Here is the input.
Amino acid sequence: MNFSYSNKTLIQFGEGSISTIQDLIPRDQKVLVIYGGGSIKKNGIYEQVTNGLKKHHWIEFSGVEANPTVETLDKAVVLARKENVDFILAVGGGSVIDGSKYVAAAICYDGEGWNILTGKHKITQAIPMGAILTLPATGSESNTAAVITKKTTQDKLAFMNPNVLPQFAVLDPDVIKTLPERQLINGIVDAFVHVCEQYLTVKTDAWVQEGYAEVLLRNLVKLAKDYDQKDSKEWRSNLMWTANQSLNGLIGTGGPQDWATHMIGHELTAFYGVDHARTLALIQPSLLRNQIAVKKAKLEQMGQNVFGLAASDTLALDTVDAIETLYNSLGMATSLKDADITANEAIPTILTALEKHGGVALGEHQAITLDVTKAILESAA
Ligand code: NZQ
Ligand code: ZN
Here is the structure.
């Protein structure tokens, strides 16, 4: 497929690199630092940020929750307007960075911010932002996407717009040292599924995208296998860079993409509060088995090139088994029951929400209708 590709986020990679914000943000900009529940105050990141901003005029907004809500973020919009902020610095994981993208765009829009999520408002401008990543997982630090929740209605929706692409992303692998293991494992699995959503579709003739996707997948398998090395600089650096590259636009360029696992997963987070990555592990193995006929060729390619499996009649299914075993080896549940979700209750709830959000024809062939999703959820029970 024809494509145009650009990713203008400057990546500042390496230990000690948080200090570079002093030069990355123009000195005449009034900065709003946005962060989450306060982990950055316990692990020294906040101190590094304040040191880096010594010569800037800056204010802060804290309390952006995991799976950020529009209710909280709208308070940041009010503050940013009142204080005439020029630049947003997001310090956190995907939630803080996504939330900051929403704030950056909502500041420039007089209507109700939620319209950005429903598509009623198309973003034409946003104030500039940068990100200091504290949790390698989503790739939000150098992509155009954000996922925001409306708490009052339990809607979790996404938007994508080039105006909210961060100008820079600071990737300091040291930040991983203080991550709870649960979040670290979430990061590996989220990145793995991001590559799958862009790669596990149909065979293409895009050598660069397919080959690079396989490198990223092999890295993530190795990071999971070598999990006991997680305190080494090599392990941490490779996780950070691999997760970033898994969703920065490159491997998905010019080819079909799936994203059905994510769409179903977002509903599970909205209603049951399950961590984003954990919803993906619950859904994806069942979805792949359900879609095996259309994904067979690519699953076989992945089996050989990523997991090193031998050619056989059962290779595609063996590959799905290998993916599920990978998640289980990290302690991730791959069935609703193991995640304490009652399928009988959850399935109608998820289907109703998907219908409301237009998720009625998912996947690279738009063939995952509500009936198909129902079958996937039943086999994930
Ligand atoms: O709130 P704080 O104090 O920052 O604590 C966070 C939070 O409790 C903590 N944490 C982050 N860095 C830490 C740390 N704790 C100790 N040390 C550190 N260095 O980890 C918890 C989870 O953080 P969160 O940002 O929610 O996690 P993640 O990065 O996995 O982001 C998940 C969100 O991103 C969205 C998801 O839907 C979810 O809302 N996604 C965004 C995407 C995008 N923009 O492209 C794509 C993804 O598929 C995903 O949908
Ligand atoms: Zn994800």
